[in-house]
Write a structure and sequence with these properties.
The protein is α+β, with helices and mostly antiparallel strands. It contains 18 helices and 30 strands. Strand 5, helix 5 and strand 6 (129-132) form a beta-alpha-beta unit. Helix 13 (302-335) crosses helix 14. It is globular.
């Protein structure tokens, strides 16, 4: 029996007419362990965002604009229909297609409260019922499901963290008291790792352990973590005022620690709705507010910022040495009939990083994409798709590293010969949008969606656009995509604040032809007059040969000149002769 048939039989045994399968795990994270790849197991789609709806007769996969090509490559159109996760959301499908009296199930540990409320609204319009399943139906029929991860939890020194766990818990507890909350529910592993000064390795590319945590208003906590992950000597960790418990007891722990009418902070976007349900069952009052830890962690302390600045210089050296190799080898080896391939380039950037001190592993799977593959924003080369990088084509690399003192993420687009007018026009517009946002000054209270259009305007002027966000937060030796700050079209009511670290990454893509993206990371700083601005962290040459220089303003030329001067000063002394030659080639602007 195929997988959908197995699921449908399990649905029938639970009197369900439809089942929602999110990409999320119990922590609502972007990256999942193999044990939690339920959406991929069910549908074949391996992207980092999406969900499926399985009915007794139909199957629909919802993805965002990054994955519209990938989902059609990975999922059979004979079996699945495809819809846009935001433009054609699931709640609209439910309201239009579910019949009166039907039951739609979902595991309440796998969706946050806001998603539950949206889906419940759609089901209610159809006069049907959204049901919290008592167990996960996919797990029930997935015979060879991998085990949950059990990577060791390691302490993260105050030398790198900048503050003790006790200090951090005290700060969050003070915010809880201001909100009138007795308890805070935390389910995001990077938040818990930051709060307790620990790191782990339960999810690829993310130095975080899976766990849950309940923080009391006196700064004490109950940490729900598998004891097999911990050292035999608990003194290795900063656990003063912290009790440990089994993760399977997490929901019971919420009920036990929630007093009658006690107010409990629950993040509506990043904590499972099961937590809200447990608070209510215990007679408590859930305060649905964005997590206090999330907001505090996003504003880096001086030690964290120093680490990020330092690791970006080392990462810039690795990138520049990689680019020098790429620009030399692509034309030479193509001429010799032994071309460079995407997977080799991906291995090369990894090798260059491994030569840098403090490097641990990549911060995500590198997007090493030649020619038309670069039009898929989250393309991942495989043995089946591994494509030649040829001199007459273009190549995009989006790659980052986890260093003991910070996390990096950058994108560059390369050409090895003259590009055509279509590409040059788009590359120039992307570059102008990148500079427009990177050089922006903005007042306090500005939110990401307020300024997203600055990066898009040069493309909009040409009738072009891109279907992904313009910027995301980044962690400090934590997740490469950090909440809550974002720059993009969707409403996101989070003020951009000094100390936050963000990407700026406009792009443009033409299916089956090419992809363009330029990405740097920036810290947000407060200037003398109280306005905010972006201060560059990423030091990697931006190739000017693809630009239409006559379209650049004096201000844009000055920005590029200043950036190049910084590259020469900061990277120059550390580069090999080949790396230095490449840097000089980029600094010499074309006429």
């Amino acid at each position: 029996m195929d997988r959908l048939s197995l699921l449908r039989e399990e649905m029938k045994s639970n009197s369900l007419d439809a089942l929602i399968i999110p990409r999320f795990d119990e922590h609502q994270g972007e990256y999942c362990a193999p044990h939690d790849e339920r959406l991929a197991w069910t549908t074949g789609f391996t992207g980092s965002a999406g969900l499926a709806l399985i009915t007794l007769k139909e199957a629909v996969v919802f993805v965002d604009g990054r994955y519209t090509v990938q989902v059609r490559n990975q999922c059979s159109a004979e079996t699945f229909a495809f819809q846009h996760l935001f433009e054609e959301p699931l709640e609209h499908w439910l309201s239009a297609n579910v019949n009166r009296g039907e039951r739609v199930g979902v595991d309440p540990m796998l969706i946050p409260s806001n998603w539950w409320d949206r889906f419940d609204g759609g089901v209610e319009q159809a006069k049907a019922t959204l049901v919290a399943t008592p167990y996960n139906l996919v797990d029930e029929v997935w015979e060879d499901q991998p085990e949950k991860p059990l990577a060791p939890v390691t302490p993260y020194s105050v030398e790198h963290a900048g503050k003790t766990s006790l200090q951090k818990r005290g700060e969050i507890a003070a915010q809880m008291k201001e909100a009138g909350a007795k308890l805070l529910v935390e389910t995001q592993p990077d938040n818990i790792a930051w709060l307790l000064n620990v790191r782990g390795d339960d999810v690829e590319f993310n130095p975080i352990p899976h766990s849950f945590l309940l923080l009391k208003d006196d700064g004490s906590a109950c940490w729900f973590v598998n004891s097999r992950k911990l050292s035999n000597t608990l003194e290795d960790y900063e656990l003063d005022g912290v009790e440990t418990a089994d993760p399977r007891d997490f929901l019971d722990g919420i009920e036990n620690l929630t007093g009658e009418n006690a107010q409990v902070l629950v993040d509506p976007d990043f904590s499972p709705v099961a937590a809200r349900i447990s608070v209510k069952q215990a007679g408590g009052i859930p305060l649905m507010q964005r997590g206090a830890i999330t907001l505090t962690k996003a504003q880096k302390n001086s030690c964290e910022l120093n680490g990020l600045r330092a690791c970006h210089i080392r990462d810039g050296i690795a990138w520049t040495e990689f680019a020098a190799w790429l620009k030399r080898e692509v034309p030479l080896r193509a001429k010799a009939g032994n071309p460079v391939y995407e997977l080799e380039a991906e291995e090369r950037i990894l090798g260059e990083r491994q030569r840098q001190s403090g490097f641990v592993y990549p911060s995500f799977r590198s997007i090493s994409a030649a020619s038309g593959n670069a039009a898929m924003c989250h393309y991942a080369a495989s043995d089946a798709t591994n494509t030649e990088i040829l001199p007459e084509q273009t190549y995009l690399l989006d790659s980052g590293g986890q260093y003991i003192d910070g996390t990096t993420d950058a994108t560059r687009t390369f050409a090895f010969s003259e590009v055509n007018d279509e590409f040059r026009r788009a590359y120039t517009a992307v570059f102008k949008g990148f500079i427009a946002l990177a050089s922006l000054r903005f007042p306090k209270g500005t939110q990401g969606y307020h300024i997203d259009g600055f990066a898009r305007k040069p493309l909009w002027d040409l009738g072009l656009d891109y279907d992904h966000g313009t910027g995301h937060g980044i962690g400090h030796y934590l997740s490469v995509h950090e909440q809550p700050q974002r720059i993009g079209k969707p409403y996101n009511p989070v003020d951009l604040c000094a100390g936050m670290v963000m990407s700026i990454e406009p792009g443009f893509y033409v299916a089956d032809k090419f992809g363009i993206r330029i990405e740097n990371l920036f810290e947000i700083i407060e200037e003398a007059d109280g306005f905010l601005s972006f201060k560059n962290l990423t030091y990697i040459p931006i190739e000017p040969q693809m630009l239409n220089m006559v379209e650049l303003t004096r201000a844009e030329m000055k920005w590029l000149g200043d950036y190049n001067a910084d590259l020469k000063t900061i990277l120059g002394p550390e580069l090999s002769p080949d790396g230095l030659d490449y840097l000089h080639d980029c600094i010499e602007l074309p006429d």
